[in-house]
Design goal:
Layout: H1 2-9, H2 21-38, H3 44-57, H4 59-72, E1 83-84, E2 93-95, H5 101-111, E3 121-133, E4 142-147, E5 150-154, H6 157-169, E6 177-186, E7 195-200
Parallel strand pairs: 1-6
Antiparallel strand pairs: 2-7, 3-4, 3-6, 4-5, 6-7
Transmembrane segments: 21-37, 43-60
Keywords: Membrane, Transmembrane, Transmembrane helix
Length: 208
Amino acid sequence: MKKQAQSSADSPEKQEPKISVFSILIMSLFIGLIAGAGVDTSYILPIALISAVVLIVNRNKIVTVDQSDKNARPHVNPVQSYYTWPELDQFACTIAAAPFQKVISQLIQENVINPDNNSITQTHILKAHLIPDSSNPFDTDVVHIDINGRSICYLSREESTSLCSRLNEKKLSNQITICNAIISWSSETNKKTLCYTVKLDIEPFLKK
């Protein structure tokens, strides 16, 4: 019975991992060379010996810290995911993007090569982020629409309230959600300025 207990205690599965003495000596010599070069070469061996003693005494702790760090790495910076509204392919929700025409124009230029000003109508589909903003003390139901990191619209109070109610029903209060968006632009034959319209692939916020 004693032999079995001894053999199980000495099994490699239960032995704690250790840094080899050779590795510690190499590391200590390296530390001594660095410290000695900055002070005096006569200090190289004493510093190396002191470093070796310290590392040998604490090698179990060093390995334990290293192993715990490796185990924790997979949990660092988890990928954040947002709720995506179902694709209806209707784009029935038109938002008021008139005050953001310049921003939308820059957005189009970044995503479309040389938009043709002579075309009557063009469209481009992107991902829109619907972002609730409760930091406003006067209105907690503020929602703005971002595409590629650019705010292209602020919903009206009625629209924001409607969207926040949907989020509450889905238990997604104050959370960012995503939907497809169409940016269309058109120009009249006598005008060079393009007019941009943004439609979301989501149920209209206000019932007509």
